[in-house]
Amino acid sequence: MNLQTKFHGEVEVNEEQFIHFNTGIPGFIDEKEFCILPIEETPLFVLQSVKSAGTAFILTDPFSFFTEYEFDLPEEVTEALTISSDKDVAVFVILTIQEPFEKTTANLQAPVIINQKEKQGKQVILNGTSYTTKHQLITKEGK
């Protein structure tokens, strides 16, 4: 099917690419179906709503930028996403893109967890951690 997107224009996607968010994303609870589109030649992706072309989020793999990033996934999330193996899980974080790009921040407090096997997703708010919604993506050391 053809999908209108915020950043890629119209793209062809297969419904097998859709990821279902049972509870939507915080602030976008009516948006339940998304697909992840790569941004060529970058470590970035777009989490694009299937329903609304204007609803899209820029994502990245947090472990590429924050090597010390770790957390325990709450059991209720593991159950809700029917995760049976760590191998099925992909973790992304939502970026707030800034100009210049060096000021871009990552929301490490609320990672997006995807069960790739079951095509289920959830943005999880981590409580009791030192993570915030605005960790600078690129530090002065260039990391």
UniProtKB/TrEMBL annotation:
The family database entries (InterPro entries) matched by this protein are listed as: Flagellar_assembly_factor_FliW, Flagellar_assmbl_FliW_dom_sf
Kindly name one Pfam family recorded for this protein. Answer: FliW
Transmembrane intervals = none
Which Gene Ontology BP terms does the record give? bacterial-type flagellum assembly; regulation of translation
Q: Which GO terms describe its cellular component?
A: cytoplasm
Source domain of life: Bacteria
Its annotated compartments are:
Cytoplasm
Q: Which SUPFAM superfamilies match?
A: BH3618-like (SSF141457)
Keywords associated with the record: Bacterial flagellum biogenesis, Cell projection, Chaperone, Cilium, Cytoplasm, Flagellum, Translation regulation
Q: Which family does it belong to?
A: Belongs to the FliW family.
What does the protein in this record do? Acts as an anti-CsrA protein, binds CsrA and prevents it from repressing translation of its target genes, one of which is flagellin. Binds to flagellin and participates in the assembly of the flagellum.
Oligomeric state and partners? Interacts with translational regulator CsrA and flagellin(s).
The name this protein carries in UniProt is Flagellar assembly factor FliW
State the organism of origin.
Bacillus infantis
Q: What would be the name of the gene that encodes this protein? A: fliW
